[in-house]
Design brief:
The protein is an alpha/beta fold and 411 residues long. It is built from eleven helices and 21 strands. The strands form six sheets. The chain has a six-stranded mixed β-sheet with strand order 13-8-2-3-4-21, with helices on both faces. A five-stranded mixed β-sheet has the order 16-15-14-19-20, with helices on both faces. A four-stranded antiparallel β-sheet has the order 9-12-10-11.
C-alpha cells in the first residue's frame, strides 16, 4: 500500500445524506486522470447533506475511506471534500482597480489585486467563503476580456461569483475528516463539482444548468458564456418524495422507499389509469393493492415543485435567454423513470440525463449518476493540481481549521 501524499494520487470525498463516497485517482504526467476505485458506505448522522451526529458521521466516513484503501491499495492521508447544505448562499460582485502607470499596462499584480478584493468582500457574519469564482474581466468601457495581462487600460474590473456558508456547519464536516488524521486539502461546492463531470467546455460556453438531485438536498448551478452565474441549494430531495408516498399512501417509510425504487415513475406512459401494484404481506404489514396513478401523481407533484423553484430562480434573474445548451440532470435521485420528460415540460430548454462521468481507468463506476459529485470533484482537484502545483510542506505542518478555510479560496 502506498500513500496518497504521492504527488500523483488524488482522493475526493462526498458526505451525502444516504451515502459517503471516496474516489481515488492517479494524475498522470501528461495531466490525464485515471480512476483507481471508489469506496462507499451507508451514511449515518447526516441529514440534508449536513452532519448532525459527529460520531456516527465520522464512522461512516472512516468506513468509506477504508473501503477505498482496500480497493486501491492507497493509504489515504489527504482529501478534497465537497460541501452542501441549505445554509449555503451566493452572490456576484464587481471589483476594480486603476492602472496608474504611465503606459497603463495591465500586469499580473493588477489581476492579483482584483482577486484579493474579491476575497475580502463583506459576507454575512459567521459565514466562510467556499469559492470566489472568476466570471470575467473588463478593461476600459466595460470591454470583456479573458486574459487582461498585457493589455493597456486605465481601469481593470473583474466580476466574481462568491459562494459562502455558515462557518460552524462547514467546519463540522471538515473536522469529521481531520480528526481521523487526514488533511482536507481543499473544498468545493457540490454542484460545482458535479458540473465538472456533467459539462464539457463547449456546454459551459453555450450556457447550461446542472441539477444534482440527492436524497436530502437538490443542488443547482448555472453557467453562462463559460462562467458560473448562479448557484443554489434547496433543502428538498429524493427523501421527501419517499415521505410523500408514505403519508399519501399510508404505508411505512421503508415500504415507500422500496416502492419508489422498484416502481417509481413520473409519467403514466403505457399504463391504464386503473393499473395496480401489489405490496406483499410482511410482518406488521398486510398485503395491499395501490393504484399506480396515485403513486405517480404523488411523486410528480413533489418533483415538479422542486424543478419549478429552480426554473423560477433562473427566470427571475433573466438568465434563460443565455442558456442554449440545456439542463443536465444528475445525482442519485435523477434515476427515477419519467424525470427527463417532466423536466422538458418544466424548463424552456432541452433537458438531458447525465449517465455518470467518463474517466480513464476503472469503468465499474463510470455509468452511475449517484457518483457524479465525487467523480466531478476529482476533475476539480485535477484542475487545481495542474494550475497551482502541489503545495510543499503540508505533510509537515499541522494546519488549523482557519487555514483550511483560507485554502478554500484557491479556485
Amino acid at each position: 500500500m502506498f500513500s496518497n501524499r504521492d504527488p500523483h494520487i488524488i482522493v475526493a470525498v462526498e458526505v451525502g445524506t444516504h451515502k459517503v463516497c471516496a474516489a481515488v485517482a492517479e494524475l498522470s504526467p501528461d495531466g490525464s486522470l485515471m480512476l483507481l476505485g471508489v469506496g462507499e458506505s451507508s451514511a449515518s448522522g447526516v441529514r440534508k447533506g449536513e452532519v448532525i451526529d459527529f460520531q456516527l458521521a465520522q464512522q461512516s466516513i472512516s468506513q468509506a475511506l477504508l473501503d477505498a484503501e482496500t480497493k486501491t491499495e492507497v493509504q489515504v492521508q489527504e482529501v478534497y471534500l465537497s460541501l452542501t447544505g441549505s445554509h449555503i448562499e451566493s452572490r456576484s460582485v464587481m471589483v476594480r482597480t486603476g492602472i496608474e502607470e504611465d503606459d497603463h499596462l495591465i500586469t499580473t499584480d493588477h489581476v492579483a489585486e482584483l482577486q484579493d478584493q474579491a476575497q475580502h468582500q463583506v459576507i454575512p457574519r459567521d459565514h466562510a467563503v467556499i469559492h470566489e469564482l472568476l466570471q470575467r474581466y473588463y478593461s476600459d468601457h466595460q470591454t470583456p476580456c479573458d486574459d487582461p495581462v498585457g493589455l493597456s487600460s486605465q481601469i481593470l474590473e473583474g466580476s466574481y461569483h462568491l459562494v459562502y456558508g455558515l462557518q460552524t456547519r462547514l467546519e463540522t464536516t471538515v473536522r469529521c475528516i481531520q480528526e481521523l488524521g487526514i488533511e482536507v486539502k481543499s473544498c468545493a461546492l457540490a454542484s460545482y463539482a458535479s458540473a465538472q463531470a456533467a459539462l464539457t467546455t463547449a456546454r459551459k460556453k453555450a450556457g447550461a444548468v446542472v441539477i444534482d438531485m440527492g436524497a436530502g438536498v437538490t443542488d443547482y448551478l448555472v453557467y453562462v458564456d463559460g462562467a458560473v452565474e448562479l448557484t443554489g441549494v434547496l433543502g428538498v430531495g429524493g427523501d421527501h418524495m419517499t415521505q410523500d408516498l408514505s403519508l399519501g399512501l399510508k404505508i411505512p417509510y421503508a415500504r415507500a422507499e422500496k416502492l419508489k425504487i422498484e416502481h417509481g415513475d413520473l409519467a403514466m406512459d403505457g399504463f391504464a389509469s386503473d393499473t395496480t401494484i401489489e405490496l406483499a404481506r410482511e410482518i406488521n404489514f398486510d398485503e395491499r393493492l395501490i393504484y399506480r396513478e396515485a403513486m405517480t401523481e404523488i411523486m410528480r407533484v413533489r418533483q415538479e415543485e422542486i424543478m419549478q423553484l429552480i426554473e423560477e430562480d433562473i427566470r427571475d434573474r433573466g438568465l434563460w435567454p443565455h442558456i442554449t445548451s440545456g439542463v443536465y440532470l444528475t445525482g442519485g435521485s435523477s434515476q427515477v423513470r419519467g424525470l427527463e420528460k417532466l423536466a422538458r415540460q418544466v424548463f424552456p430548454v432541452p433537458a438531458h440525463l447525465v449517465n455518470g462521468c467518463t474517466l480513464e481507468g476503472e469503468q465499474t463506476y463510470s455509468q452511475r449518476p449517484d457518483l457524479g459529485t465525487v467523480l466531478g470533484l476529482l476533475r476539480y482537484a485535477q484542475q487545481l493540481e495542474l494550475k497551482n502545483g502541489r503545495p510543499r510542506g503540508w505533510d509537515k505542518v499541522r494546519r488549523s481549521l482557519r487555514a483550511v478555510f483560507e485554502s478554500m479560496r484557491l479556485f
